[in-house]
Write a structure and sequence with these properties.
Deoxyribonuclease I, Chain A, 6-stranded mixed beta sheet, 5-stranded mixed beta sheet, 11 strands, 18% helix, disordered N terminus
Length: 267
Amino acid sequence: MSDKLLFSHNNSFTPGNRIKLLSYNVQVGMGTSRPHHYVTKSWKHVLPHAAHFNNLDQIAELVKGYDIVGLQEVDAGSIRSSYVNQTAYLAEKAEFAFWQHQTNRNLGHFAKHSNGLLCQYPLQHIEQHKLPGRLPGRGAMIAFFGAPENPLVVVLLHLALGKKARQQQLLYISNIVSAYEHVVLMGDLNCQPESEEMLSLLQSTDLRAPVADLLTFPSWKPSRMLDHILVSPSLRVHDVSVVDVAISDHLPISMDVTIPGAVGLAA
């Protein structure tokens, strides 16, 4: 399946639709579900293994039924993924019409650290941004649905581990999203709702604060909320929850929203 299909204008996404969103750090399909797996399964970061595909197939079953899915920690095709682009694999297995990936740290044959986007609706266009920080390798994928004058803007992120870098990265993103009325920001933000960098993002944009107590990490005994979906006030939220499925070291977060009729969508 070609990622060029993303730019098709055959649109079945009508204004006012209730849609299902999911954000999931899939950890390259490693299947970490216990603390000791960080040691015993560490070799899976660099070498292929059969369980990758079993885990990816489980993830594909999970994401079926969602309309827009943001993926973090997917591989774009290297030794460790058996040279399979995992975003494309999941799109085909889960029967998504469109997909795109963003490789932010390309280690050649050894690893291609990427974000991935799966969607059932075509895009008006997509932007890929390199995020600031002392260490390179973090990026944002920004997808625009609908007419250019009033789009739905979906921002997919995987932020840095360091607080200072996260502050820089969220400041960079806030300057972009502030220009749009209808925004979804999702991903592994590596910080909790009460963190200084998260509060700064909410103060500098009109994005809604994340719902409290949606613990996503670690998957086997969640104690931290590192994964988020934030939305503009123009999007009506019906439901938000953590999906209890321990395939990765993160749990996915799900949200149902209604897109307002004011959003113009391509014919």
